[in-house]
Every structure is written in C-alpha cells, then in structure tokens.
Amino acid sequence: MTKCDVAVIGAGPYGLSATAHLRTIKGLDVHTFGEPMSFWERNMPVGMLLRSGWAASHLADPDQSLTLDRYKAATSRRFSTPVPLDCFIDYGHWFQRQVVPDLDQRKIVRVESKPKGFRLIMETGETVTADRVVVAAGIGSFAWRPSQLAGLPSSLVSHTCEHRDLRPFSGKRVLVIGSGQSALESAALLHEGGAEVEIVARTRQIRWLGGTISRTFQHGLGPTVSKLLYAPTDVGPAGISKIVARPDLTRRLPRSIQDWLRKRSIRPAGARWLVARLQNVPMSIGRSVVSAAAAGGQIRVRLDDGSDKTVDHVLLGTGYRVDASKYDFLSPELAKAIDCFQGYPRLREGLESSVPGLHFLGAPAIWSFGALMQFVVGTHYASRALLRCVAGKAEVRRAQVGEPLSAEVA
After folding, report:
1. Distance between CA atoms of 341 and 350, rounded to whole angstroms?
2. CA–CA separation, 286 vs 81, rounded Å?
3. Which candidate, 166, 172, 248, 268, has a CA 20 to 30 Å from the CA of 194?
4. 378-400 and 13-22 helices cross at what angle (nearest 10)?
5. How far is CA 122 from CA 9, 29, 328, 331, 333, in A?
6. DSSP tag of 404
7. CA nearest neighbour of 18 among 346, 392, 379
8. List of E strands, 147-276
C-alpha cells in the first residue's frame, strides 16, 4: 500500500473508534497505524482501576454494539465497576480485532504536508500518501514535569506514565506530587506494595468524585432528578455535566464560559473509592515544591513552608499539558502551520485543524470541544463528528469529478 484516503495515527480508544466509524463510508480507503492500546498497556500501573463509570467506559462503534457488556459475554470474563485496567486493555484489543483486524503496527516517524494531502514516513523508510490524516496519538507526549524538578536523573524523579510496575519501590520512601487520580491511585498502589509514601499537593483540599449513584445518595436526590443534573457521560458536576456532554453546544458558547466549564469539569480529583485505601498515607496539602536536589543517592525536596523531605524517589502525578508541537512525528513545517492556542490546535467542525485534512482527536481537542475530549466517553462524539465531516467532503469530491452522489454510509 502506497496511498490511502485517510490515515489514522494511533490505535487507542480514539483511533480505534474513529476507524470503526470511517469504515462505514463506502469506497473510502482507511488505513490505521499504531500498536493497540499501547499507552494504557505500557504507561499505566498494574492494579489500576478506571475512574470512569461503566456507561462512560464503552468504546464507540457505529452500532453501539461492541460494549463492555458484549465483551464480557464474548470472553466470559467477570468484572464490574470500577473497571480493572487489565480488563479494559483486553477489551480494547478485542474491540480492535472486531473493527480493525488489519491494523498496521509500523511506527510513523514523520508526517509531511504535500500540495494535496500528506506524506507519511515509517521507521522502515517506506512511505504512504494520504488525502487526510487523523491524529489520535494520545497524551504520552504531553507528560508535564515541574521546572523545580528538571535536570534530575530518572532514578530520583519520574512521571507516573513511566511506570507499568510499581513493585520495585517496595521498601523505599516515595514522595508523590499531585492531587489527581493518577497521583492518588499511584500512592495507594505504592502503599499497598510496601513503600513508605507521602503525598504533596498544592490544593488545599483533595476533591473526591463518586459515581452517579453515590452522588444521588449524597445529595438526597431521586433517580429522576439525578438524570436531569448528570449526563451519562459522567464528566463534570451537577448541571455542568449536561452541558459538557454536548460539545456542539459547548463550542458555540462565549470563550470565557467555555474556559470556566472546562476548568470546573476536569479539575484534579480522585475517585471516592480511594479514600479508604489512602487513610494511612500522610498528605501535605496546600504545599508546593520550591526546589529539589540529589543528596547522597536520595533526593531532598524543599517545600514552600521551608520544610525539607529526603526520600528515595519523587513520583510526579502532575498530569499532562497539551502541546500539539510535541507530537514528534509532525514535521517542523507542518507543526508550525497549525494554528494553536497555548498548545491546543484550534479545531473546526469535524475536529479539523487550520491545516485542511488534518484532524486531532482526544485531549488536543479539549480547547475547541470541551472537557469530554479528555475521557474515553468522548470517543462517541469525536467519531461521529469526524464521520460527518469526512463523509460530507467525500460527497463534494465525488460531485467534482462527476461521480454519482452515492456517499451513503454503510
């Protein structure tokens, strides 16, 4: 294969869901590159549980039939919510085998813009041209490390996304920085694995999230009222949840309101089922790191209250900051051509960037389409929006070359 209509880069939830939808367009040649569920499989710790509820953890296929329930029935695996990471990864592989059995696992090392379309260069040196490129490459390139901890060796400081197995920290003193799900759950796993753990967080209060049922009981609401306040997407607090579940509505609101909705919906927080697991883990809340230095095989961290903590390792649960230019497979010329705001590509309908034919799914779409794009549940909107865009432009192209207008979606 040397040419295709659409090249999808990435085989995680967004890439697989997008491919499943695009392949319903008759006559459209869609080629998907990537290793299935690779970030989830290599960059998240063994023993992790998904924060998202059951209804918000299904991948998107056009018929909405390849659900977790269908996977359980097909494989006879027994699990419930919160969904174990290993089960979700296996579900992703199962989903891939159903919708993209011909997945191309060769790595794309460069994407270049051409006068008409794009050239993709693989690590083998082979090239493919595509009229359209869909970037669904995940968040691995965006791991954020505070400047106060820069320049220190990985033996002393690392990001949560760098660890699949936390067992090597057993018996060691570990300082976990952060107050979101990644930091809190990593701290719980470290504690349960025999490490001496402490959490440091800038926030003055850890926010705990529960599922819809727990929120209903907490606020004394009945199921009918709960449905009025919370969307099944399970993203955002009461009321706001219903708005962010509709990206087409969200993106048309004034910019200041969009920013407020995003901040309210994706603030650092942990699942409520972590509370009991962390009850014996000390936390320094309302504190931030001002400096850090190696100290005889350990690391000494100074906090803003003047206190020092000497530990064996600092684990950064500091999240991710989107910057599309950090996708190293984008050529410098192509990356520079993308109109961005603080690293986020400005996207129009169909999640298309300022470079015609170049789309971004997942976290890079947050600024344009809202908080839903940070979660698995966002695959449903993103895939449908992409499908509408590509199908519409395929019809226009067929009309221009005199083909019958028959771009029906299979």
Report:
1. 18
2. 31
3. 268
4. 40
5. 11, 19, 13, 13, 18
6. -
7. 379
8. 157-159, 173-177, 196-201, 208-209, 270-271
- For residue 214, the model assigns a pLDDT of 46
Neighbouring residues of 399: CB distance < 8 A, sequence distance ≥ 6: 405
What is the C-alpha to C-alpha distance for residues 253 and 403, in angstroms, rounded to an integer?
39
Partnered with residue 121 across adjacent β-strands are 110, 127
- 10 Å CB burial of residue 264 (0-12, 13-18, 19+) is middle
Copy the structure tokens of residue 393.
Answer: 């432009």
What are 288-305's pLDDT values in tens digits?
999 999 999 999 999 999
DSSP designation for 68: H
Q: Are strands 298-303 and 308-311 parallel, antiparallel or unpaired?
A: antiparallel
Residue matched to tokens 């023993």: 47
Q: Are strands 344-345 and 340-341 parallel, antiparallel or unpaired?
A: antiparallel
Read off the pLDDT of residues 197-213 as tens digits, 9 standing for 90 and up.
999 999 999 999 874 44
The single-letter code of the amino acid at 372 is: L
Q: At what angle do helices 13-22 and 85-99 cross, to 10 degrees?
A: 20
Burial class (CB in 10 A: 0-12, 13-18, 19+), 89: middle
Rounded distance between C-alpha atoms, residue 368 and residue 345, angstroms: 8
At 211 the three-state DSSP class reads coil
CA angle 128, 129, 133 (to 5 degrees): 105
Task: Convert the pLDDT of each residue in 56-113 to its tens digit.
Answer: 999 999 999 999 999 999 999 999 999 999 999 999 999 999 999 999 999 999 999 9
Tell me: pLDDT of 215 over 80. Answer: no
- The DSSP output letter for 333 is H
Provide the 10 A C-beta neighbour count for residue 309: 18
Give the other-Cβ count within 10 Å of 287's Cβ.
Answer: 19
Q: Is 340 helix (H, G, I), strand (E, B) or coil?
A: strand
List of domains in the chain:
3-142+321-400 (3.50.50.60), 147-207+269-316 (3.50.50.60), 208-265 (no CATH)
- DSSP 8-class letter at 57: -
Going by C-alpha positions, the residue among 251, 274, 277, 248 that lies closest to residue 262 is 251
